[in-house]
Amino acid sequence: MIGSLIALVGAAAAVWSPFRPWYDGRHGRDVRIEDLFGTITDNKAMLFGSLFLPMAFAALVALIGVALRSRLLVSLAGLVVLGFTVLWMVRQGQEAGELTAGDRGLGVGAASALGGGALLVFGALIMSGRGHLARHRRDSRVYDDGYRHYREDDDHAAPEHPRPARPEPFDPDHPVPPEWEQPPPPQRPRDDQE
Which of 96, 113, 143, 151 has the most crowded CB, counting CB atoms within 10 A? Predict the structure, then answer.
């Protein structure tokens, strides 16, 4: 559960990051996707043609991964966020000649994207997968064998005592089972018989 929560926080940070300054006050939603594969320009991008698109896609994949308890999908979402952020940093560094931090450098948007991607990967690492949950559910089933309750994963799951034999049909000549019959107690002679 903690891994899923961490992954969701990472996805939220990744989606919010394009709406914050990435470099020199320029928001990520203004950076065109095409600029990542060429030269970064000052041309303003449409929202779904900007860095928002890969971040939104990664968040969607992360949500599906959390819903399906898929560590692979959550990890993939984290790698998409980190990959696009690092690619942008490389292109921005080539364009500016260097990368600096502060008012005229890297902003909180890029930091949010890096942190969100890292949280997605970390959440996937500590998140329990589907196979673990299915095995836990299967092993936790409780059975009743007539003597005691035991779990499927119990080392002593087999009953300690054999089941009792089926009772014989009622016999009017022997209403009491033979093993219950006891010999009558010995009788002492009475005084009047002496």
Answer: 113
Q: What is the mean pLDDT of residues 47-67?
A: 93
Query: Could you tell me if residue 154 is left (phi over 0), alpha (psi between -120 and 50 degrees) or otherwise beta?
Result: beta
The letter for the amino acid at 106 is L
Closest by CA to 88, choosing from 156, 152, 13, 33, is 33
And the tokens for 40? 């970064």
CB burial readout 147-174, b (16+ within 10 A) else e? eeebeeeeeeeeeeeeeeeeeeeeeeee
Beta bridge partners of 151: 142
**pTM, 2 dp:** 0.63
Q: How far apart are CA 103 and CA 25, in angstroms?
A: 7
Distances (CA, A) of 106 to 22, 48, 88, 111: 6, 22, 11, 8
How many C-alpha atoms does 109 have within 13 Å on its Cβ side? 26
Q: Rounded distance, CA 15 to CA 112, Å?
A: 9
- Bigger pLDDT: 69 or 138? 69
